[in-house]
Amino acid sequence: MSIATSGLHHVTAIAGDPQRNADFYLRTLGLRLVKTTVNFDDPGTYHLYYGDESGKPGSLLTFFPWKDAPSGRHGTGQATTTSFSVPEGSIGWWQRHLAEQGVETSRVHSRDGEEALTFRDPDGLALSLVAHPQGDPRAPWEGGTVPAEHGVRGLHSVTLSVDHEDATAEMFRGLGLEFAAQEQNRLRFTAGDGGPGAFVDVLVTPDAPRGLVAAGAVHHVAWRAPDEATQAAWREELVGDGVNVTSILDRQYFRSLYFREPGGTLLEIATDEPGFTADEPLLELGRALKLPPWLEPKREDIDRMLPKLDLPAENNPEVLG
């Protein structure tokens, strides 16, 4: 394939109670809620986007929170760990901070020169904080509850669990990712120039159960395309390779297409444009419920169905001013 991604765009997961979800990602992890909208296919449900100050591609973890959603099961055919990048030397601070918040963590462990700390969110989603030895030049969200010197820089990587690696590895190579390393049953691939935000690990676990996507599990993993023209060309190549690909869908803040890699994980290609300031100013991101034009006539009904969210004032800097 002649078109290659530069890295991760976002990861989308399923959550339970939306307020509990917002409290954890805003107050405990110190991310910014950059968009409060709805699941376009189920507008009675929020779609919450967390990231850096402006929600740049590669910083985003998003959720569909269903309050009564059953618990998912981690296993093959899905992304089983989502990792964030933090500064080198910050892992100890995070270990203490999470303990103070009542979050149980693993011991700090090292792999390929990176220090990592693993834990779970309130719904059981597997998360990791990783400090890359060469650092991460991306800026953190400085207005949140976590000091900027320790703040999350964006996504670091995702880990996909599969029964067998051959077909998955072949598709990743076709998407422009390069094989970088292998440690026992874990294979690492890199996109673009590599580094945090451009890694995907493939964990081969043939004896693991099949995963179930529900609360506490990843729904899909999105890769970056710079613009709609590149995305359209990419779709043509995938279709030509016999991949079952959706049409290009308007997600208001980017355009999307979806397909599954051979191991079963749902993948997305999402455009970098137009971004989250398409319908509200940077300083006001996430404060108000935003709907796409085709759902605006139903705003009153949608607003009635959605529970109210209590957001920290730090999410909107001018509120504090």
TrEMBL record:
Presence of keyword Oxidoreductase: yes
Where does the record place the VOC domain? 7-132, 154-272
Q: Does the keyword Oxidoreductase apply?
A: yes
The UniProt entry, under CDD domains, shows: PcpA_C_like, PcpA_N_like
Q: Which SUPFAM superfamilies match?
A: Glyoxalase/Bleomycin resistance protein/Dihydroxybiphenyl dioxygenase
Q: Which Gene3D superfamilies match?
A: 2,3-Dihydroxybiphenyl 1,2-Dioxygenase, domain 1
Read off the Pfam families from this record: Glyoxalase
Residue ranges of coiled coil: none
User: What GO molecular function annotation could you give as one example from this UniProt entry?
Assistant: dioxygenase activity
Q: Which UniProt keywords apply?
A: Dioxygenase, Oxidoreductase
Instruction: Report the protein name in the record.
Output: Ring-cleaving dioxygenase
Top-down, what is the taxonomic lineage of the species of origin? Bacteria, Bacillati, Actinomycetota, Actinomycetes, Pseudonocardiales
